[in-house]
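Progress note, project year one: complex with TLP.
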Amino acid sequence: MELIDLRSDTVTKPTPEMRQAMASAEVGDDVYEEDPTVKRLETLGAEMIGKEAALFVPSGTMGNQIAAMTYLTRGDEVILEAESHIFYYEVGGLALLSGAQACPLPGRRGFMEPELITQAIREDNIHFPRTGLLCLENTHNRAGGAVLTPEQTKKMAEAAQKHGIPVHLDGARIFNAAIALGIDVRELTAPVDSVMFCLSKGLGAPVGSLLAGSKSFIAKARKNRKVLGGGLRQSGVLAAAGLIALEKMVARLAEDHDHARLLAEGLANIPGLTINPDEFSTNILILSLEKLPLTAAEFVQLLKEHGVLAGAVSETAIRFVTHKDVNKQQIKEALRIIEQLVNGLNRKTRV
Ligand code: TLP
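Model obtained:
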């Protein structure tokens, strides 16, 4: 049985063109800053994202954590959204690596009210930690791939920056946001001081993310990458795939969004499932199972037994993520399987 893997866009495999480019990549020792392919990727990434410089890092998590380490000193506080990846899914890295504590704020689809940010900023008082950083996330993973507009980004960033506090954007899927809005990605990154974006999700590279910011920020970040063991050697073999991700794979994200829409509309038509397709504009869907007589983990298991992979995100909700390795036919097939399973469950409940 061929599985339809909708767990994440991280499962995408490199394209044949990427594999070829990897095989023939020109390389050098990147700790000595002598890998020409890594340099090309960093230059192109910085230019596309609208920052002075960029640093190739092994993962999005490492990119975010390096950014935090670069801004913070021990005992600082970081303002971020309570459902953000940095707070929720990065293994307590802020505390472990930066010695910082988090100040999580409620958000709506990734947006934190600027007044709440202002209120959370600490005054200069002997008892208080220093507020060292504001983190934003676009698209917002746990909010179902929700998109922040340039205006929203600017409003939140300005609330921090006017108090001299830097702003880091977790832009793991920032190109999905730009494509969904139909704008240049630089409009979304202009308000922030640094941004991390992933090559290894919808863009299809096997490994890697870029952290971008000012030249002096990236110089410090390079040292923090080294301390985490992220100073790679002939990493041009990885960067070669990343270059193709940036050059050839951005525009096709629109197809993933179309597939997510098709999936959401199909799910909305299945009695027993709760989803509003209008809430999702990129490649992530959150489906509520509240009306079904089983937990999200149980439903995920049932789906797996029938060839569809998804992930539980709470007791009652599951996540589907569309990506380049699932085509329209497979989306329709997944819908057929889900409908059959849910109908079976509905029948059982009625008995
Ligand atoms: N997210 C993964 C899991 O960690 C949940 C996924 O499958 O979606 N920022 C955001 C917004 C992310 O969604 C992710 C990955 C990361 C950072 C971390 O990237 P990696 O996996 O490269 O460390």
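The pocket of TLP is lined by residues 8, 10, 59-61, 64, 85, 89, 137, 141, 170, 172, 198, 200, 209 (CB under 6 Å).
Residues 14-248 form a domain with the Aspartate Aminotransferase; domain 2 fold (CATH 3.40.640.10).
No further modelling is planned for this target in the current period.
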